[in-house]
C-alpha cells in the first residue's frame, strides 16, 4: 500500500500512517493539497492526514479539501503527540541558538522556549523536515522540535525528550481514499458530514434537531466560510451511532432541510 502524508518521513503523520496501517510505503508531500491531488489521481492508495489536535484544535484546510475533492474518509486513528529537542550528533544543549519546527509544534512547547531565552524559536514547514534540514546543512547551533522517529530516520540525536507543555496531547488522523462517500465501512459507528443551510433565523437549530431525531449523537461541529459568499458558512459535524440505519436516517433528514449535504465518510471511531 502506498500512502501520502503532508510532511517528511519521521513526522507525526508518518508515525500515524504506520500505526494505522502497518508497514506501508509513505509518500511525503510538502503541501496537503498535493497529498489530496495524489489520492484523486490514483498515484497513491490513500492519504493519512491530521484533522484535529486536542490542544490546537481543527485543521481547517483539511476540512475545506474534504469538501472540495472527490474523496472519502474510511478510517480514523489517534496518536499521542510527543515533542522532542533534536540536534546533530555530539551537539550539546548549550550550543543551541535557534529552534525550528512547525508553528503548531512551537506553540505547544512554549514553556521550554521561555525557559531557554538563548534559543530563538523560528517556524519551519514541518517537524521532521526541521531535523532533515539541520542534518543536511550540518547546522550545529540549530535544533529541531520533532518526534523521536525523525532522529532515527535522519541520524540525529535526541537532546531533550518530552518538552511539550501538556502531556495530554493527542491528534486525530483520517485515512482518506478516492471516491464519494456513502457506503458504510464494516463496523462503522461514526460519520463525518458537511452541510449548508439557507441564511435564515433558526435553520441551523432545525438541522441539528433533525440529527437528534434520527438518534445520532453529535460529537463535534465546525463552521467554515463559503468562498465568495461573505458571512455564509458550511457546517461540518461528526456524529456517533449504534446502528448504521441511524446514519442513513440522519443523512436523509438533513437532505430534506439543507441546500447541500455531503457525506465525508462513515468509519469506525478511533479508540482512546
User: What is the CATH C level class of the largest domain, in words?
Assistant: Alpha Beta
The CATH topology of the largest domain is: D-Maltodextrin-Binding Protein, domain 2
Q: How many DSSP H or I helices?
A: 9
The dominant shape is elongated
Describe the largest sheet: 6 strands, mixed
Give the helices and strands as they follow along the chain.
EHEHEEHEEEHHEHEHEEEHEEHE
What is the second-level CATH architecture of the largest domain?
3-Layer(aba) Sandwich
In round numbers, the mean pLDDT is: 94
Question: What is the straight-line distance between the termini?
Answer: 26 Å
List keywords for this structure.
6-stranded mixed sheet, D-Maltodextrin-Binding Protein, domain 2, elongated, alpha/beta, 272 residues, Alpha-Beta Plaits
Element layout with pairings:
Layout: E1 2-6, H1 12-21, E2 25-29, H2 32-41, E3 46-53, E4 57-58, H3 60-68, E5 71-80, E6 84-87, E7 98-101, H4 103-107, H5 110-115, E8 120-123, H6 127-136, E9 142-146, H7 148-154, E10 157-160, E11 170-178, E12 190-196, H8 203-213, E13 217-226, E14 229-240, H9 244-257, E15 260-267
Parallel strand pairs: 1-2, 1-3, 7-8, 7-9
Antiparallel strand pairs: 3-4, 3-11, 5-11, 6-9, 6-10, 12-14, 12-15, 13-14
Helix pairs in contact: 6-7, 8-9
Amino acid at each position: 500500500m502506498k500512502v501520502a502524508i503532508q510532511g517528511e518521513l519521521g513526522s507525526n503523520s508518518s508515525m500515524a500512517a504506520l500505526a494505522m496501517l502497518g508497514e506501508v510505503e509513505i509518500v511525503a508531500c510538502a503541501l496537503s493539497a498535493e497529498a489530496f491531488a495524489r489520492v484523486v489521481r490514483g498515484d497513491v492508495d490513500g492519504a493519512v492526514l491530521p484533522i484535529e489536535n486536542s490542544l490546537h484544535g481543527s485543521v481547517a484546510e483539511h476540512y475545506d479539501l474534504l469538501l472540495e475533492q472527490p474523496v472519502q474518509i474510511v478510517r480514523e486513528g489517534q496518536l499521542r503527540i510527543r515533542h522532542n529537542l533534536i540536534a546533530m550528533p555530539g551537539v550539546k544543549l548549550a550550543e543551541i541558538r535557534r529552534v525550528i519546527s512547525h508553528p503548531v509544534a512551537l506553540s505547544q512547547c512554549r514553556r521550554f522556549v521561555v525557559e531557554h531565552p538563548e534559543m530563538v524559536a523560528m517556524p519551519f514547514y514541518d517537524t521532521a523536515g526541521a531535523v532533515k534540514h539541520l542534518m543536511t546543512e550540518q547546522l550545529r547551533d540549530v535544533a529541531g522540535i520533532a518526534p523521536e522517529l525523525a532522529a532515527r530516520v535522519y541520524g540525529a540525536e535526541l537532546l531533550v525528550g518530552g518538552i511539550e507543555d501538556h502531556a495530554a496531547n493527542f491528534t486525530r488522523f483520517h485515512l482518506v481514499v478516492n471516491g464519494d462517500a456513502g457506503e458504510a465501512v464494516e463496523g462503522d459507528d461514526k460519520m463525518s458530514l458537511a452541510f449548508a443551510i439557507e441564511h435564515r433565523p433558526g435553520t441551523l437549530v432545525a438541522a441539528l434537531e433533525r440529527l437528534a431525531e434520527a438518534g445520532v449523537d453529535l460529537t463535534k461541529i465546525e463552521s467554515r466560510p463559503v468562498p465568495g459568499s461573505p458571512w455564509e458558512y458550511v457546517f461540518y459535524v461528526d456524529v456517533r451511532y449504534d446502528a448504521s440505519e441511524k446514519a442513513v436516517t440522519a443523512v436523509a433528514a438533513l437532505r430534506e432541510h439543507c441546500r447541500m449535504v455531503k457525506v465525508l465518510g462513515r468509519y469506525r471511531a478511533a479508540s482512546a
